[in-house]
Amino acid sequence: MAIKLYGRSNSGNVQKVLVVLELSNIEYELILAGKPNPLNKENPEYLAINKFGLVPCIVDEEKGLTLTESNTIIRYLDDAYGDRSLSSKDPVEYAKVNQWQDIISTNKDKEAGHQLFLSLIRNRFELTEELKVELETTATNFWDLVEDELNDHDYLASGSLSLADITIAPFLHRYLKLDINRPEYPNIDAYYSRLLENEILKKYIDVVLT
Fold it and tell me: Which helix H or strand E contains 29, and what residues bound it?
């Protein structure tokens, strides 16, 4: 029975789930949800499925499970269907992958890059030059950490592609494609190119920003 994925493919968090579903050869059905689609947090039909109203959301009917939160979803898919091929069966390595997922999702400096995306691409608010410079500067604090981590590793958290890399990929793509000032990041540039060598990552990540 196919897993139902509620979301839209231009959402970075939905992109992560799509990548893991396809890398793990999991049968799924994509059901468009989230604004501007009719199924959204203001629609009682969608709220009956997902009381939080956001995307992504998956329904695994075979296991009687509904899940939200993209990192939780992709960890579940890797555990339940991927035999932890995108994390690790070793508890130490598994913890490293989870740690980087949490860092990526909660780091406040990374959020500055998201604010730039919301203004420059989605026109959510007007961006003054002063605010733009402030957000650019703040965002570099996060990407400096990533650049440093990649000094000794081809990938985050492990020696091969993992959930940590899939978690960061949509937001790295946005950061590199925005018309903003950023430092030179040779490790990140090489890392980004390495990620796009994977056909499924390229399919969902290397897209026009909308």
Answer: strand 28-32
The CA–CA distances, whole Å, from 113 to 12, 104, 119, 121 equal 13, 12, 10, 12
pTM equals: 0.96
User: DSSP assignment, residue 181?
Assistant: -
Apex 9 CA angle, 126 and 68, nearest 5: 95
Check whether the bond before 186 is cis (ω within 30° of 0): no
Tokens of 203: 């399919």
175 burial (CB, 10 Å; 0-12 / 13-18 / 19+) is buried
Burial of 17 (0-12, 13-18, 19+ CB in 10 A): buried
- 207 contacts 21 by C-beta, under 8 angstroms: no
pLDDT per residue as tens, the chain (210 positions): 799 999 999 999 999 999 999 999 999 999 999 999 999 999 999 999 999 999 999 999 999 999 999 999 999 999 999 999 999 999 999 999 999 999 999 999 999 999 999 999 999 999 999 999 999 999 999 999 999 999 999 999 988 999 999 999 999 999 999 999 999 999 999 999 999 999 999 999 999 999
Write the DSSP string, 37-60: SSSSTT-HHHHHH-TT--S-EEEE
